[in-house]
């Protein structure tokens, strides 16, 4: 009888991604902040989602199924959050200063993925950086580096078309 009850409850949660990534998982906090940055301008473009997927894959080397589960868990956590504090608190506990600066660079990378940057995205990253203890200087440097890199990529493609 007890086995049947356990089987029943396991079947209810078999499609639940939270088993793979509990809410307090650092990866979920990072993915949630990324989704909140993507949603800041009111639209989440396909290219932004793909860039987030690439970045998460680069950093965590997950199987496709696990990567989908992380993206889902991050998006859900981001929707449920009332502020950034929950995520930034976990991140501050687990990442050193340089890693937090790099995270700000990742957020800028996602902003520039669609080729556009707006003041709402700037504001979200500013607030997150403040909560993470990332200085204004480091935040701006990360933005400039990503913008410069994206600008150079655009020129490389344009130059290749001209040849």
UniProtKB/TrEMBL annotation:
<protein>
    <recommendedName>
        <fullName>Co-chaperone DjlA N-terminal domain-containing protein</fullName>
    </recommendedName>
</protein>
<dbReference type="Pfam" id="PF05099">
    <property type="entry name" value="TerB"/>
</dbReference>
<feature type="domain" description="Co-chaperone DjlA N-terminal">
    <location>
        <begin position="28"/>
        <end position="143"/>
    </location>
</feature>
<dbReference type="InterPro" id="IPR007791">
    <property type="entry name" value="DjlA_N"/>
</dbReference>
<dbReference type="InterPro" id="IPR029024">
    <property type="entry name" value="TerB-like"/>
</dbReference>
